[in-house]
């Protein structure tokens, strides 16, 4: 696997000098600052934390964290992405891409990238390997073969390669997806997810089933509802439930977000439950560019 990735990256690197006159690079990112008032010693944070992630699912990589991304194209069919994770101080993504734009195969990646699993509410992981993204009929797909992910370390203590397939489609007003993740003979993940919006109301749902070979099984459920009170103000409720090694856990987030301008928003919420790291009140300022 590592040799395949290295060979593909070298092809792109060797092609760069000849195409340097046609390189386009854009930068984007998010920066979070959070202030939390925990209600107990085991709660998520204690004081103001610049660049910190929000209340999360135990120790996994969360959605709300600070990062900077550089996206580039070289000529008509080559690209690259680099993402530095400011919150966790590591490189999340560093991959080269071939961009045929042919529909059936829109992109081929080699390097380190995000491995998509569900809506990322319970799992967000990055790994090194190769991926093919494209569209077959009404279905968008992401097929990845990667080195061992963080999931293998957490659940199976394994360094085996993993196969991950994420498929999405839109039916009417509903976007639905399915995930299959296989890590040799150590771990399987099956998941379905859906999201829809009707007027000011938004709904999201995710279900993941983990089968850890010879050990235990896990089931995760996520439900989310939102209401756009105005163009700038949104109220939301998130619910998390997990059955982990025979023990049941649940948690919720209830709050409101306010869009200050196109690049900044303020969120305030009450968080409760071990799945999201503890209990307490959190405010968060997000700046995007």
Instruction: Identify low-pLDDT runs.
Output: none
Radius of gyration: 20 Å
Overall shape: it is globular
From N to C, what is the helix and strand string? HEEEEEEEEHEEEEEEEEE
Overall mean pLDDT: 87
At the fold tier of CATH, the topology name is Porin
User: What proportion of the residues form beta strands (DSSP E)?
Assistant: over 45%
Individual helix count = 2
Tally of domains: 1
How far the N terminus sits from the C terminus, by CA atoms, comes to 35 Å
Per CATH, the superfamily is Porin
The CATH architecture term is Beta Barrel
Structure class: mainly beta
Reading side by side through the largest sheet, how are the strands ordered?
1-3-4-5-6-7-8-9-10-11-12-13-14-15-16-17
Question: Which percent bin holds the helix content?
Answer: under 10%
């Amino acid at each position: 696997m590592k040799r395949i990735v290295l060979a593909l990256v070298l092809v792109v690197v060797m092609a760069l000098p000849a195409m340097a006159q046609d390189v386009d690079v854009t930068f984007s990112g998010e920066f979070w600052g959070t202030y939390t008032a925990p209600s107990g010693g085991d709660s998520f944070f204690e004081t103001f934390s610049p660049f910190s992630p929000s209340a999360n699912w135990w120790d996994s990589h969360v959605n709300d964290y600070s990062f900077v991304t550089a996206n580039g194209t070289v000529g008509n069919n080559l690209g690259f992405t680099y993402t530095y994770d400011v919150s966790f101080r590591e490189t999340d993504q560093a991959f080269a891409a071939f961009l045929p734009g042919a529909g059936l195969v829109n992109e081929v990646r080699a390097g380190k990238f995000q491995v998509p699993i569900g809506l990322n509410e319970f799992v967000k992981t990055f790994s090194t390997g190769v991926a093919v993204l494209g569209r077959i009929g009404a279905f968008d797909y992401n097929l990845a073969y990667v080195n061992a992910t963080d999931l293998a370390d957490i659940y199976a203590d394994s360094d085996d390669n993993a196969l991950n397939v994420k498929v999405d489609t839109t039916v009417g007003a509903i976007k639905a997806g399915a995930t299959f993740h296989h890590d040799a003979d150590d771990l399987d993940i099956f998941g379905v997810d859906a999201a829809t919006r009707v007027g000011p109301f938004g709904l999201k749902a995710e279900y993941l089933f983990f089968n850890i070979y010879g050990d235990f099984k896990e089931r995760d459920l996520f439900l989310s509802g939102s209401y756009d009170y105005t163009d700038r103000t949104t109220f939301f409720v998130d619910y998390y439930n997990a059955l982990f090694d025979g023990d049941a856990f649940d948690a919720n987030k209830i709050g409101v977000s306010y869009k200050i301008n196109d690049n900044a928003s303020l969120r305030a919420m009450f968080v409760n439950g071990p799945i999201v790291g503890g209990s307490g009140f959190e405010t968060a300022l997000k700046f995007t560019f």
